[in-house]
Amino acid sequence: MNYPKGTNMEKQNTTAKQIIYGNRGMNLENDLNITNEYYRDHDLALVYKKPTPIKISKVNYDTMKITEAFFESPSTTDYNGIYQGKYLDFEAKETNQKTAFPLKNIHKHQLKHMEAVLRQQGICFLIVRFNKRDETFLLFAKDLMDYIKEKDVSSIPHSYFEEKGFLIETKYHPRVDYLKIIKEHGGV
């Protein structure tokens, strides 16, 4: 097709790279934030991302910019809220590993927090996205703790997520519907 001034658009696009539309740049945190907004908008659950506690130590008041800050205390898990009268708490992680989820991605204080939530009979779990497989799993904290206590390893194999976890289908709305799994398998 010829455009004004003799520009031929077909010839200009011959070096363009192929665009792959899988996930469209969305990461797990963004997907969960969109999902949680959907849950709130439809009065299904109140779940929020917890902010990391930061203490500001220096501010440039001329530019109104923070110039120095530090983590005040270790954070617990990423998300918490309430679903059908039950406290909900979970950590979300991504990995580029195909065969296992590295346990170094979960800190000891986070595991202690998850154990405390379980003692209080809250609903607690881990959501892990295996990026190279385009799979997202929900693994209940009890199964996570059982695995860590039974094994002296540095990672959880993908096969354990297939065996004990629940594959979460990625959809348009809600994007990562973890409440469906909680409702069917989480004791609510």
Describe this protein's structure.
The protein is built from six helices and ten strands; from the N terminus they run ααββββββαββαβαβα. The strands form three sheets. A six-stranded mixed sheet has the order 1-4-5-7-8-10, sandwiched between helices. 23% of the residues are buried. The N and C termini lie far apart (60 Å). It has helices at residues 9-12, 28-41, 108-119, 141-150, 158-164, 178-185, and strands at residues 46-49, 54-60, 65-71, 79-83, 86-95, 100-102, 123-130, 135-140, 155-157, 166-167. With 188 residues, the chain is an alpha+beta fold. Helix content is 29%, strand content 29%. It has a single domain (38-185), classed as Trna Endonuclease, Chain: A, domain 1 (3-Layer(aba) Sandwich).
Observed structural traits:
Trna Endonuclease, Chain: A, domain 1, two-stranded antiparallel sheet, alpha+beta, 188 residues, globular, six-stranded mixed β-sheet
- Which series of helices and strands comes N to C? HHEEEEEEHEEHEHEH
Q: What percent of the residues sit in helical stretches (DSSP H or I)?
A: 25-40%
What is the CATH topology descriptor? Trna Endonuclease, Chain: A, domain 1
CATH class (first level) name: Alpha Beta
Provide the domain count: 1
Largest sheet: 6 strands, mixed
Sequence-ordered SSE layout with sheet pairings:
Elements: H1 9-12, H2 28-41, E1 46-49, E2 54-60, E3 65-71, E4 79-83, E5 86-95, E6 100-102, H3 108-119, E7 123-130, E8 135-140, H4 141-150, E9 155-157, H5 158-164, E10 166-167, H6 178-185
Parallel strand pairs: 5-7
Antiparallel strand pairs: 1-4, 2-3, 4-5, 6-9, 7-8, 8-10
